[in-house]
Amino acid sequence: MRLKSEAQTMKATLQIGKGGISEGIIEEIKTQLKRQNLIKVKILQSAFSDEYEDREQIGKTLAERAGAELIEIKGNTIVLSKKGTKSKER
Length: 90
Known about the structure:
Layout: H1 3-8, E1 14-16, H2 23-35, E2 38-43, H3 55-66, E3 68-74, E4 77-82
Parallel strand pairs: 1-2
Antiparallel strand pairs: 2-4, 3-4
């Protein structure tokens, strides 16, 4: 199953709000990725600020700081996976 299709049935396990991308958020992403290959993160409207103006910027920052791969951004939901996780289909 490809990672994007696998993510469709998942629910977001983490939300980013007005606190933005804190060290606590990054640590929680790392912890969740140790337990599972794929996670979904929901971006609340309050997360957008001068520092993070759009969802692509937030997604790239999360992936970089957590050492993860950015799989998809759909609406205000970001899908991240462990680095090196490949889809089974090619």
